Amino acid sequence: MKYLKYLLIGIAFGIVMTKSEAISWYRIQEMFRFQAFHMYGIIGSALAVGIALTQWLKRSAKTAIDGNPITFQDKQFSISRYLFGGFIFGLGWALSGACPGPMYTLLGNGFSVFIVVILSAIFGTFVYGLLRPYLPH
Amino acid sequence: MIELLTQAWPWYVSGPLIALIMFALLVAGGNFGVSSTLRSFCSIGGAGKSIEFFDFDWKAQIWNIVFVIGAIIGGFIAQTFIPNPEPLALSSSTINDLAALGIPFSGGLAPETLFKWSSLFTFQGFLVLVVGGFLVGFGTRWAGGCTSGHAISGLSNLQVPSLIAVIGFFLGGLFMTFILFQLIF
Q1: Pick from A62, A82, A98: CB nearest B164
Q2: Which residues are CB-contacts of B162 (< 8 A; sequence separation ≥ 6)?
Q3: Interface contact B16, partner A, CB < 8 A
Q4: Residue B143's pLDDT is what?
Q5: pTM beyond 0.90
Q6: Among partner residues A31, A75, A88, which is closest to B135 by beta-carbon distance?
Q7: Which end of chain A is more exposed for a tag (fewer CB within 10 A), N or C?
Q8: Do B16 and B79 share a structural domain?
């Protein structure tokens, strides 16, 4: 039962991602070609509301419904890992038109071949783990 | 009324709803970062035996796997019960640019010619599905997060590393779109 809330939030996420068309390969191309405001509007308005909610949560010191404090970890500073890792991610995002969230939601939308994309992404994560000691962080 | 649900939802509705999903996950005791599930799957598959990076308590991450199962179900519900009767309102300049590359606009969410099983055995299909997925999985873990973890959660928490990561996402996306697409398509 303790997982039911995550299932429901996930269902809401899948519906929003589908209806917003943020899972669309075409919309991602449109974004990278700067030919419509749609994706920038989604990310921008999510951020405007997200910043307000996050800052309020941090200041009000609210606890989660399980009673534990809601904590925010500062990300360790580095340039290379975020820039290089981000660049590789961006190559894949533009090519497959999907970041991890949309990969799952597209599967539910009937694009069964996204099983292959997800398995490839898992394999990519595995290879990162393998090469991790040799990559700049 | 039902048309409000079936049409494509405008950005000013979708964006705030995504922020509320992040908020709901925080209040539930989790956090919004989808790509962590890829690492959990490696660990579940036994990768922690030989690689320290995957040697962690993935059971503490089950909630996130339940969340992405929900994301699959949500996609199915939206597609089955409130599908958009209209073709996707893609900008005409994007339609023309893609047509010039030989990618027809179908009106759906993605080019069906590429996103089908038989295309796996074509040069372009293999790159889009297999190599694209691999780069996403590799890059997101190196960068420590994806669009949800960095662009939404990280930037909402005013993290400079997340800003660097998002700049990286865009540099990579622009390089793929404007340089590599010319070679691939």
Answers
A1: A82
A2: A75, A82, B145, B149, B150, B151, B153, B154, B155
A3: yes
A4: 98
A5: yes
A6: A88
A7: N
A8: yes
